[in-house]
Design brief:
10 strands, 23 helices, 9% strand, alpha/beta
Length: 601
Amino acid sequence: MRILFPPNPIKTPALFNSILRLRFNSLRSHCFNSMAIPPPKSAMASAVDNEVGLARRFWIKFHRESVFAMYTPFSLSLASGNLKIETFRHYIAQDVHFLKAFAHAYELAEECADDDDAKVAISLLRNAVREELKMHDSFVKEWGLHGAKKAAINSAAAKYIDFLLATASGKVEGVKGPGKLATPFEKTKVAAYTLGAMTPCMRLYAFLGKEFKALLDPNEGSHPYKKWIDNYSSESFQASAAQTEELLDKLSVSLTGEELDIIEKLYHQAMKLEIEFFCAQSLVQPTIVPLIKEHNPTTDRLMIFSDFDLTCTVVDSSAILAEIAIVTAPKSDQHQSENQIARMSSADLRNTWGLLSRQYTEEYEQCIESFVPTEKVVFDYKNLHKALEKLSDFEKKANNRVTKSGVLKGLNIEDIKRAGERLILQDGCINFFQKIVKSENLNANVHVLSYCWCGDLIRSAFSSGDLHELNVHANEFTFEESISTGDIVKKVESPIDKVQSFKDILKNCHDDRKSLTIYIGDSVGDILCLLEADIGIVIGSSSSLRRVGTQFGVSFVPLFPGLVKKQKEFIEGRSSNWKGLTGILYTASSWAEIHAFILGY
């Protein structure tokens, strides 16, 4: 249990408008500091517009998708330094076709620009592309890639090239072609659209270059693709990417909202086509991504375990249940029927929740302090398990306080379900689970293990994404007819309960298939399951989890660098088998990373 004073936890349905009014009137500043419901879109958009330019805003919006390019077998092998030369030759051949189209697109954009400064800027960017082509020529000479420039274009490269040149020619939905443009201003729009289709490519390569550069190990000798990495991480290329973005911003200044929407669609489409280009690079070597690559549904079983609160959700479920209780509670002067379950007034509820929340937070920190060693120790799972028994006792006592307080009395099951259906989940979470359960080529089971007091809330949250196949293991409210009694059927209250549920689920699996277990979590309550799983992935940035884990000898490794290291070992002939209880946990910044690693694009 993590009792948190409730921020705005749900989207804006008709039934819950009262919740919004309550939050905005009585806790306005609190809501906007820790909200799950955003302020009105126009207000948000104008605030962002004032802070960053158009290109930067698009990159922020679609940045998470860029990890799908980074996690491709091609990119991972290139970063690890063991990409086969045949694959790199094929990539260079396709990139030459693409760069020539890029240079031509700049030429068309320059013709459409009506500003001398913009023309000069575009000309300089076109020259930078020519320099990039020269670099490709040096690859051909240095590595004997003769014939690369004459290779036939593949479908992914052709698709992006056709899209780019069509855009540069003004063939955009709802836009006139250049030959029909009556004014210089209309031509400038085409220049802006063209830059919108080119900018994500520049920014993506700049991003990958810096990411790969950070992974170069000076102690490992010469990286075969260091020249490629140095180029795209260089100050000159980073500057070119920034200049492309600045130019897009400049060309878009006078455009209407509708025209800016067109540029956003072009930007997003270009990003997707670039990711497809990376995905299309054919490899002649084994790789460890995507994880399901070697999955055989007749002999293998993929077991996905996930926490719910703050792993899948934006806010803790206790805050949501508290919100419903407060909003639906009677006012102090309101008469309650003798047939109803007696409830506190909304004012008393709010005060009680505040006291419970403060007490929990203070005592939780004290509990952590009581068992965390002052000096780091060598990883020992048994010692950690024993230490967490203190936290388990604390969690159970905290839950007992909640039930005795009566704050969970009188909640209507339909209100809980509606709140769950409108609950805001982490970006990419639903898509990840949907792809798993809907795939016909996966033999996969998904289990959600949660401290949440009410499993109905979790089931409703996932039902909105048509995810009825997920197995939910959580506590449950007890109801008289459709109204909660205030009692909880306690099933999963602590780290010890969670890991026991994890083990029981695996024990009940048939032995007819080989299981690979993955656990995704965010808190100290998940740490035992994270360590027991073959692959434990931490999402988020819980300071208490990092502190407890680090002091008990657990290593937290960023996911992509960890995969680069594992890819090197894999190619060298070592086993790539994943196994638990190694004391290593992988960290991910988003569900997109998890999706890219396990399932690919």
